[in-house]
Amino acid sequence: MKILLILGAGKEQAAAFEAARARNIRTIALDMNPEAPARALADEFHPVSTRDRDAILKFAREYPSRIDGVMTIASDIPHMVSAAAEVLGARHIPVAVAELCVHKLRMKEVLRDAGVNVPAFARIARAADLKAFAAQVGYPIVVKPVDSSGARGVQRLSAGMDLEAAFAYAGRYSFGGGVIAEKFISGLQISTEGLMHDGVFHCTGFADRNYARLDDARPFMVEDGGDIPTVLNAADKALVEAEFEKATRALGIDWGPSKGDMILGGDGRPYVIEIAARLSGGNFCYDKVPWSTGVDIVDILVDMAVGNPVDAARFMPTRAMATSQRYFFPAPGVIRDIRGLDAVAGGAIRKVDVWAKAGDAVAAAENHPSRVGYVISCAPTRAQAVAAAEDAVRRVRFVTED
Predict the structure, then answer these.
(1) Half-sphere exposure of residue 213: CA atoms within 13 angstroms, side-chain side
(2) Which terminus of the chain is more exposed, N or C, with fewer CB under 10 A?
(3) Looking at the domain 187-319, which fold is it?
């Protein structure tokens, strides 16, 4: 029986444990949380932080049996996955490449130098640098930590905003304290995802991100789900996919997953915002894409990680359905009651998940982790899927008080 080491045992990693079990692959979970939600799905669990490199490598070296592969989902730790896989002699993204992909500034420098379309950007060491950058490229601009994820610390700045406060806020969310700014590009924001397998890059996921609440959350940039299929025509979709693949190859991802945050700008050009060397979170790789296209990228990566053969036909869509995801954004305050939740399941609504509960205090959304729940619909057409998801969100009422 082959053995797969999975870094993290949260909700987002559950699909990896389930896929491995279906293939009779033994799983080992590492997670610092002894109450991790997916712990019960693992064959073994060990309380090790997925950001403690030394502890992970010590575990990998001392484990008494051969571990055949390492992976994660959603967690922005590809450098930990690659380091563990290197010690174990398993297939992996090169460690240097994985480390590059968790540092937004160095990533963008490599992409720019390779001729990939990226927004104008600059390293920000002090608030004065933000002012100088804005003067150079014009507002709006985006400021963010160089090494965080989930929109933590990300802000869209316009003229007259407090640059000192914006710089300090972004820095608080950076593991190393680094901050980057980039020109805000207007256009359709897109999530892409794929796998490099035997030298061929397969773009398996393509969804339009929903930023209808962008102005409501100013200066923060909080996505409200997304929709499959895209509204783009075939030619524009191909442009975005080509730039995504170009970026993936430019970074040196020669095996395994690549996740892209892309924009098709108003100038008709595709831009790369970020590339992550991992599978996506937010239900994209393990719910929305499989329901829409039939392509199960988690299942494929599980096989790739442990060295099982993968038929290229598994990358080909087998269905054409639409999915839509929308999040719940309660008014700030203490939740006293959640009404209507039981009534929204069924029909086109495939999944409802709310992690907030009565008695919890909620603040205005500042990043993706501050969202409190979601619905996902699946229907024959995009319009039907969007209507079902948005109607479900409207029918749930969060009763809050200051």
Answers:
(1) 18
(2) C
(3) D-amino Acid Aminotransferase; Chain A, domain 1 (3.30.470)
